[in-house]
Design brief:
heterodimer; A: 218 residues; alpha/beta; Glutaconate Coenzyme A-transferase; ten-stranded mixed sheet; 15 strands; 15% helix; 30% strand; globular; B: 234 residues; eight-stranded mixed sheet; 6 helices; 27% strand
Chain lengths: 218, 234
């Protein structure tokens, strides 16, 4: 069985370590916040100016002056801090964020990512994604393995305009956990009851299989 | 202290001219200068170049200026959530410069801080770096980005005093402080305007030196784009 987006988020949550400052992108990455292990302390950064992002507010506590980067109403926590956009991206470019989790339209076997533009069709902009991927050593992607047409999103080369070059270290999909190495994609975990052949067929880029390949545990 | 108070938004924006380059604070609809945007719509000033992280939604924020075709060019990092914007962009009526959010913030900050240009890693190897100088430092590549040159900056704060000192609330701070420092003329609208001396100097975010005009705004709508509520049954 392939994983659903909640299970992908749940698997990613195991990558978090105690003391991490983490930036979560929109989509599946946002869901990771629901599965942070209780034993560890992780601080979520929202690039519009908040460290220590809390859960959605109660109806009576909704504050239009307190939103996350997805423009959703949120709350602060004990120890939260608010700041401006220049300070926020100083933290990001300065390498102070320990992990960034992003969605993607395409990732290439050398770690390039495309997630901001489909020429002639969709022009929404890159937001903070280019700053984030250019600045940390720990950038991971959460996405479906194929697009809506069933085409691979793990490519030899990205076809869409890039967000960043050679920056993705690990990819978590509905089918697999894949590392990006200098030899291309490296399959380290697969969804239970999904065959290696299916993953190879749905991966356009070069992929090697780990000798220690195991099933994804959630 | 110098008194910078003006009567209202209409007076504050009276000399904004056709073809001006204007910075507008805010992230999404959070912390946007609602009163001044309305005054610009009423004044019907045209051919504006707007520097703002987002372009509002169809019927609010900068979307109101787009609706009346007052904007010639938008410089932003993210412009989803706005159908009229997308229509004008795809039909070629509107020029758009999309730039990384951190670069947008830093180009504003640099402008106010007297830094003409700076190197950033954001966008290296993408179409953002096309035509820009690339330089390597310690084995990593960076692109040269220039500071902005804005005729006016319009910001929104929570509290201010008549000297122009400002305090923001929540994440409504966002781009407002660096834009405040970057306008040749900076206009601040605030929810609460107090006499000089009433704000604790320890807790002021934007020093009044950057502000030329300040007024107390009225009727803030503070529209929410995505009202997300926690499950209270738990």
């Amino acid at each position: 069985m392939s994983l659903n987006k909640f299970q992908i988020a749940q698997r990613i949550s195991k990558e978090l370590k105690n003391g991490y400052y983490v930036n979560l992108g929109i989509g599946i990455p946002t869901l990771v916040a629901n599965y942070i292990p209780k034993k560890i302390n992780v601080v979520l950064q929202s690039e519009n100016g908040l460290l220590g992002m809390g859960p959605f507010p109660k109806r009576s506590d909704v504050d239009p002056d307190l939103i996350n980067a997805g423009k959703q109403t949120i709350t602060t926590l004990n120890g939260s801090v608010l700041f401006d956009s220049a300070e926020s991206f100083a933290m990001i470019r300065g390498g102070h964020i320990n992990m960034t989790i992003l969605g993607a339209m395409e990732v290439s076997e050398n770690g390039d990512i495309a997630n901001w533009k489909i020429p002639g069709k969709m022009v929404k902009g890159m937001g903070g994604a280019m700053d984030l991927v250019s600045s940390s050593d720990n950038i991971i992607v959460a996405m479906m393995h194929t697009n809506k047409k069933g085409e691979s999103k793990l490519l030899k080369n990205c076809t869409l305009p890039l967000t960043g070059k050679k920056c993705i270290k690990k990819i978590f999909t509905d089918l697999a956990v894949i590392e990006v190495t200098k030899n291309g994609f490296y399959l380290v975990e697969k969804a239970p009851n999904v065959s290696i052949e299916e993953i190879i067929n749905k991966t356009e880029g070069k992929i090697e299989i780990s000798k220690k390949l195991k099933d994804i545990e959630i | 202290m110098i008194n910078k108070e003006v009567k209202d938004a209409k007076e504050a924006v009276q000399d904004i001219f056709d073809g001006s380059t204007i910075m507008l604070g805010g992230f999404g609809l959070c912390g946007i200068p609602e009163n001044c945007i309305s005054a610009l719509v009423q004044k019907n000033v045209k051919n504006l170049t707007c520097i703002s992280n987002n372009a509002g939604v169809d019927d609010f924020g900068i979307g109101l200026l787009l609706q009346k075709k007052q904007v010639k060019k938008m410089i932003s990092s993210y412009v989803g959530e706005n159908n009229e914007f997308e229509r004008q962009l795809l039909s070629g009526e509107l020029e758009v410069d999309l730039i990384p959010q951190g670069t947008l913030a830093e180009r504003c900050r640099a402008s106010g801080a007297g830094i003409p240009a700076f190197y950033t890693p954001a966008g290296f190897g993408t179409e953002v770096s096309e035509g820009k100088e690339v330089r390597e430092f310690n084995g990593k590549s960076y692109i040269l980005e220039k500071s902005f040159d804005a005729d006016f900056a319009i910001v929104k704060a929570w509290k201010g005093d008549t000297s122009g000192n400002l305090i923001y609330k929540g994440t409504a701070r966002n781009f407002n402080p660096m834009m405040a420092s970057a306008g040749k003329i900076t206009i601040a609208e605030v929810e609460e305007l107090v006499p000089t001396g009433q704000l604790d100097p320890n807790f002021i975010h934007t020093p009044g030196i950057y502000i030329q005009r300040i007024f107390k705004g009225i009727n803030y709508e503070k529209r929410i784009e995505q009202k997300t509520i926690s499950d209270e049954s738990k």
